[in-house]
Design brief:
It is found in: Cytoplasm, Cytosol; Nucleus. InterPro entries: Arg_MeTrfase, MeTrfase_PRMT7, PRMT_dom, SAM-dependent_MTases_sf. GO terms for molecular function: histone H4R3 methyltransferase activity; protein-arginine omega-N monomethyltransferase activity. One of its GO terms (biological process) is spliceosomal snRNP assembly. This protein is of the alpha+beta class. The protein folds into five domains: 31 residues, no CATH class; 111 residues, Vaccinia Virus protein VP39 (Rossmann fold); 190 residues, Hnrnp arginine n-methyltransferase1 (Distorted Sandwich), CATH 2.70.160.11; 128 residues, Vaccinia Virus protein VP39 (Rossmann fold); 174 residues, Hnrnp arginine n-methyltransferase1 (Distorted Sandwich), CATH 2.70.160.11. The chain has 16 helices and 38 strands. The strands form ten sheets. Strands 8, 11, 12, 13, 15, 16 and 17 form a seven-stranded antiparallel sheet that branches. α1 crosses α16. The protein is globular, with a radius of gyration of 28 Å.
Length: 689
């Protein structure tokens, strides 16, 4: 049997459905899963263990048998905790078959075969009774079904069903309750992920301002949560406008309702400002008294506690539908609406009790301007980055002439507008999709440029002279940026597009960027290494079968692959200097042969070589370059600052070498990199010397 998997094809700039071995999908799921991260989350595991011990004791004190239902068991960890805490029997439910198979083996290896039954079903399909999956209803409900938003993985409907059909009334639950907290802030940096700010261009005939269409200005954006490592957001990047308030709680020991509802709280700003963002996180109490608490609160809320790093639960950023000025001390009403899987917020001036009650539930935000469908949040941030825009303006001023005929190839880019304002005689832009065509059309209209810039909705290889009004292109520009790109080098699609339009270019065409280069550096991560690090034992239980399973899935492809991560959220220090390892000359067409390089990079600092980080730099014009990766190494310790609008590629080394002293350091890392021009993919191999 075969399975179809979506993959970006860097040679066509399109998502393509590839036939893969039927195991591929599940290997991807396991290889990229967060199981290792959860098993390394010591705080989570210890608190669950304490909560489970306490729940089993409470049931035993009542003289009852402790029967546990563990929904979403994963490795079987929580069931093994319950069994070793004295539970009489555990039903461990896991819907993902490869995982359920692993849980059976792990449970057996740890000696709990007689105490734990693994059920490979969705919990809503589990049956109870003499011939059922469970003999009786359970009196202890243990789950870990939460994501950063708490309810995004379907915790509410799962609990609702379990209380109706699988557990006894008045059962114990671990966790016992969850509480969601919110805080109102103003943040230009985060607001720039949701709205496009005006762009100022100094042209020869005065200053021009590029503005957004009004429907984009007033668009609430997309409802999907923006989950980030808020602990990496410096306090200088936001202003707190309110105290932290409790938005709502869910008691898991009682019947849970998943039906859509809303919650309201009164707020009084502690400072005047622009209300733009609701920051949110949750905590869970593992016991009824709230003595065993596991919290996701960011650093400025609980500065004293020692932080547990985790990537499976972070913090949420919600964008209010529009920014509103608020005054210190005025009474406001914040509404959180939710359906079964997601939350969204609305802020209003507080009114009389009666009026507030009659307020209907706020509808889920829907993007009507399409820009939020075309550009993701980092892309908005990138388009709002003034210093980046300045580099493109400087480069365009160097290359544009009064008779320049310009073609832009990038998805939903402001370059065509910049080229027009900076004096190009004629500007064409190639848009690859109906959405980008529509967004750019609205954009040009809002700036009265609809008759100045021509949008062509065609693939580069289908570009005809008639599209270009029989003109030849003298300046070809790209950022380059394409919405299908996942890894830094996928934007090399620009080179393939440039090759496809060669016949439409003048013989002395200027290409901007003129070239690109791939860069690499060896790093030690503060925490990100945990997501790929074997666990061995977890709270005294042997989970090596899980390690082997993840490893097997990572090695399922002959060559391990680099994976994209936004490194501004994941601190690391450089162990080597950054090194340029491959160059791509856009002035020439894509060659038929592969581009390969081998070499070594010296390690200059002591530390653990967790992996290599790779990124692209684009050389726009003489002396002007843009990096999608390293911005700077900020001190002698090697701490790195990364481009916040792009994901960098991380290649984790399978054997992490630790060196405490410089003498026993691996002195260098050798690399072999191969860019396959037929597929647009890069294969890589590293060895520690």
């Amino acid at each position: 049997m075969k399975t179809f998997c979506g993959r970006a094809n860097p040679t066509t700039g399109a998502m393509e459905w590839l036939e893969e071995d039927e195991n591929y999908d599940y290997h991807q799921e396991i290889a990229r899963s967060r199981y290792a991260d959860m098993l390394h989350d010591k705080d989570r595991n210890e608190k669950y263990y304490q909560g489970i011990r306490a729940a089993v004791s409470r049931v035993k004190e009542r003289g009852e048998k402790a029967i546990v239902l563990d929904i979403g068991t994963g490795t079987g960890l929580l069931s093994m905790m319950a069994a070793s805490a004295g539970a009489d029997f555990c039903y461990a439910v896991e819907v993902f078959k490869p995982m359920a198979n692993a849980a059976v083996k792990i449970v057996e290896k740890n000696g709990f075969r007689d105490k734990i039954k693994v059920i490979n079903k969705h919990s809503t399909e589990v049956t109870v009774g003499p011939d059922g999956d469970m003999q009786h209803r359970a009196n202890i409900l243990v789950t870990e079904l939460f994501d950063t938003e708490l309810i995004g993985e379907g915790a509410l409907p799962t609990y609702e069903h379990a209380h109706k059909y699988l557990v006894q009334e008045g059962c114990e639950a671990v966790p016992h309750r969850a509480t969601v907290y919110v805080q109102l802030v103003e943040s230009k940096r985060m607001w720039a992920w949701n709205k496009l700010f005006p762009v100022h261009v100094e042209a020869e005939d005065g200053e021009k301002i590029i503005v957004s269409p009004s429907e984009m200005e007033n668009c609430p954006g997309v409802p999907s949560v923006c989950d980030i490592q808020l602990n990496q957001m410096p306090s200088s990047d936001f202003t707190v406008l309110s105290d932290v308030v409790t938005m709502f709680s869910v008691d898991f020991s009682k019947p849970v309702r998943s039906a859509s509802t809303c919650y309201r709280v009164q707020l009084e700003p502690v400072k005047s400002g622009k209300a733009q963002i609701v920051l949110s996180w949750w905590d869970i109490d593992m016991d009824p008294s709230g003595m065993i608490n596991c919290t996701m609160a960011p650093y400025w809320v609980k500065p004293t506690s020692s932080f547990q790093w985790r990537d499976h639960w972070m913090q949420c950023v919600y964008f209010l539908p529009n920014e509103d000025p608020v005054l210190q001390g005025e009474k406001l009403c914040l509404t959180a609406s939710r359906d079964e899987y997601s939350l969204w917020y609305k802020l209003q001036k507080a009114r009389g009790e009666e009026e507030n009650k009659s307020d209907v539930r706020v509808e889920s935000p829907v993007c009507r301007c399409q820009a939020h469908l075309l550009w993701n949040r980092p892309r908005f941030g990138q388009l709002n980055d003034k210093s980046r825009t300045r580099q493109y303006i400087k480069s365009l001023m160097k290359v544009l002439k009064a008779d320049s005929v310009c073609l832009c190839i990038s998805d939903g880019s402001l370059l065509p507008v910049l080229a027009h304002y900076l004096g190009a005689k004629q500007v064409f832009t190639l848009e690859n999709s109906a959405v980008s065509y529509s967004v750019m059309e609205k954009f040009f209209k809002a700036n009265h440029l609809e008759d100045k810039i021509k949008i062509i909705e065609a693939r580069p290889e289908l570009l005809a002279s008639s599209h270009l009004e029989d003109k030849k292109i003298s300046v070809l520009v790209g950022e380059p940026f394409f919405t299908t790109s996942l890894l830094p080098w996928h934007n090399l699609y620009f080179w393939y597009a440039r090759t496809a339009v060669t016949s439409h270019l003048t013989s002395d065409v200027t290409i901007l960027p003129q070239s690109a280069s791939l860069h690499m550096m060896i790093v030690e991560f503060q925490d990100l290494w945990r997501i790929r690090s074997p666990c061995g034992t977890c709270e005294g239980f042997d989970v090596q079968i899980m390690d082997d399973m993840i490893n097997n899935s990572l090695n399922f492809r002959e060559s391990k692959e680099a994976e994209p991560h936004p490194l501004w959220e994941y601190p690391c220090k450089s162990l080597s200097d950054p090194q340029e390892i491959l160059t791509f000359d856009f002035r020439k067409t894509v060659p038929q042969h592969c581009l390969s390089t081998e070499g070594s990079v010296n390690l200059l600092r002591k530390g653990k070589s967790h992996g290599a980080v790779l990124w692209m730099e684009y050389h726009l014009a003489a002396d002007i370059s843009i990096s999608t990766g390293l911005v700077q190494i900020s001190n002698e310790k090697g701490n790195c600052e990364w481009n916040p609008h792009c994901k960098q590629a991380v290649y984790f080394f399978s054997s992490v070498t630790e060196s405490e002293t410089l003498s026993d350091l691996p002195s260098a890392v050798t690399y072999a990199i191969n860019f396959d021009t037929k597929t647009g993919e890069i294969a890589m191999d590293f060895k520690l010397l």
